[in-house]
Amino acid sequence: MLTTRPRGTADLLPGEVEKWQYVEERARDLCRRYGYREIRTPLFEHTELFVRSVGAGTDIVEKEMYTFRDRGGRELSLRPEGTAGVVRAFLENGLHAGPQPVKLFYLGPMFRYDRPQAGRLRQFHQFGVEVFGSADPAVDAEVIALTVDFFAELGTPDVQIELNSVGCPECRPVLAERLRRYLAPHLADLCGDCRRRLERSALRVLDCKNRACRALLAGAPTAPDYLCAPCADHFAGLRRHLERDGIGYRLNPRLVRGLDYYTRTAFEITVPGLGAQNALGGGGRYDGLVEECGGPHVPAVGCAIGMERTLLYLAERGVELPARGGPEVYLVEAGAPEGAAADLLRRLRRAGFAADRDYLGRSLKAQMKHAARLGVAFTLILGADEWARGCVAVRHMETGQQEEIPLGDVPAYLRGRLNR
Ligand code: HAM
Hints:
- There is one protein chain.
- Helix content is 36%, strand content 21%.
- It is of the alpha+beta class.
- It has two domains: 245 residues, Bira Bifunctional Protein, Domain 2 (BirA Bifunctional Protein, domain 2, 2-Layer Sandwich), CATH 3.30.930; 89 residues, Rossmann fold.
- The protein has an eight-stranded mixed β-sheet with strand order 1-5-6-11-10-9-7-8.
- The mean pLDDT is 94.
- The protein binds histidyl-adenosine monophosphate (HAM).
- The site of histidyl-adenosine monophosphate (HAM) has 26 residues, from strand 6, strand 10, strand 11 and helix 11.
- Histidyl-adenosine monophosphate (HAM) binds next to strand 6, strand 10, strand 11 and helix 11.
């Protein structure tokens, strides 16, 4: 127990962490260029926020939340997703009263108690973006473009966008009723989940993975056929933007997302070959959510990408991520007076180099071996003779070449060779 991490969690060790940092840096830089600013919200919120926003009847709220009572008796939950907390922060901090649209992004852990498997964890990480204050389909297109660019810049331009419109509170009940009527003669053949869903959130049956249900639903009515005129216009507008911007997508009239807050646009980023967990990300519009949380009417759209699935996919596609890290310079002590090595090391670190030394009292040979194992580019050997001449021996580890450099010139020498 003491040496076992909780099921569905992961340790990111040095080597792997640098890959995450690289992907996170790409996300941050992309957001900077697209005009999104970072927001950090708490890892836990009042449970009621998720019940209201994600939806009481969803799997996330019914089965997957880490809910607890704190010592003050408050009902809290670890956030299962990022949108609800961002909406709460948007309202609580009066961002709706400032200039619109408000464009935000976040990176961080989320928690869902689901059955762990490859690409599905109980603590996982999302990169998400949310835009508040515009109903223009151009914003939906921008969010989709940002996700497409994210994967293209990581070296995987072949992700697919699956697109649908799930309508609004005006047109959705019409489709729900049609679905109920269509399925009424087949109730006994539907799975238990679908029978229950048909009552509360009928559209979700369209997304059932059960083979018998899928067969029954083959000719079922789907959202795009029942959109009201404003929703149909919005969807057509979004498709025009995407086509104009050269962003490929596949219409999927059965795409219904697992969260209740969506209106109109719903999309997923999928890839072939990741098995059941083939959605790298997903998002859509949620024009009613700010109001549902007690605020004014503020249209909004966003999306979140799963970091673990993204990294899995990159690895599967053989994309090499820079695993920078560890020292680039190792200082070997070989008889120079006490303090000389510490002094040089400090100067190197101040000059911006990742530099390290021995702290285990190793012999010269063992220090050299250790430096090689660390994979440093240069080893500096500070012996008594070199030090007496005001120099240090610098060994280029790749070529094995060694030369003596005046102590004062070492930073400039390294800068030139390490391309700084
Ligand atoms: P979601 O589809 O529930 O949407 O999650 C988005 C992504 O998070 C998924 O596509 C997947 O890559 C990743 N993900 C979800 N659950 C897990 C898990 N258990 N393990 C690993 N990865 C997982 C949302 O969360 C919405 N908040 C997205 C959004 C933002 N909609 C509008 N704005």
